[in-house]
Hints:
The chain is 30% helix and 23% strand. By secondary structure, it is α/β, with parallel strands linked by helices. Helix 1 (10-23) crosses helix 3 (42-48).
Amino acid sequence: MRQATVYIDQEALQYNLNRVKQLAPTAKIVSMVKANAYGHGVKDCLAALKDSDAFGVACLEEALEIRELGYEQPITLIEGIFSDDEMQIVIDKKIECVVHHQQQLDWLRAHKDAYIAQGLKVWVKLNSGMNRLGFKVPEIIEVINSLKAEGFTCVLAMHFANADAENYPLNDQQRDQFLQVKEACAPIMGSCCNSAAIFKWPELNFDFVRPGIMLYGATPFADKTVAELDLKPVMTFTAEIIALNTIQAGESVGYGSTFIAEQEMQLAIVSIGYGDGYPRAFPKQNYVSINGQQTRLIGRVAMDMIAIDVTHINAPIGTEVELWGKERLVDDVAEANGTIGYELLCRMSARPVRKLA
Ligand SMILES: *Cc1c(COP(=O)(O)O)cnc(C)c1O
């Protein structure tokens, strides 16, 4: 059997959840499990994240999956509902909505009594300069104050565009607008921290923090490693060596013959490729890890196979190769490929076998 495997370390997930608790001890934790728990598999992740106060997802289908698995915590739909017919399901299944435009407010008001009777909060989204979703100042103040007057329980919600950047001017504008609205609508609960903001601005934790990437043990920052943040990688992605080749100087390897050997070398072919979610780009040299030793990729990544240099490594057929995990960090693979860990994790394909570590 082809041995492309994704191992999920539930203890690492719990460790990272505890890191959130240390960093934001007074806030409730909305664990972000959208996109199949950032590609990790929502079922196994929920089991490890069961002590979260709530969960956050991007759409109703993702929320219903959580309910079907038997979890009863509050769930927030971070983009709200997409059509009127979703409102009744949301109410029946006790799922909370973000509202970010007028039509969603109309849908909500049409179901006001049932929504409130279920004890559901409304997350009102502030657009403070990211310019994706939300009401701007001062409109949002009117929206919130009228929702409150109608009997809704509101949470002021906001998302930073540059929480991962030091001294970015928009950060101050976003924070100031959030605080301004929070004061104008007081008393109101607040939520504006993703992983990066949880690390950077403890004073902005407020009522609910929304950690995503940090739970999975990847870094939200370009310039800080998971070790520096005291986080543990949750996913280990491995495959096996299925063939060995000795090539001579002048011989090429793989599609496009992009690599030409300068001297005799030993290659190993590993059964992994972009069909599994392994990235093909690598504008910078990419590496894998074999028993703690890093070794370079050779030539192009194909759909099902890669070649690696094992000239100086004893690695017979059947040797397990770590594509990313605790030795070769997903953040470093992402960097070599001109992307971020988030993307590599989320776009894991369904092909590798999933196992618990
Ligand atoms: C995805 C998401 C988060 C989590 O962001 P991370 O950077 O992964 O921590 C938080 N809030 C909202 C609204 C999101 O969409």
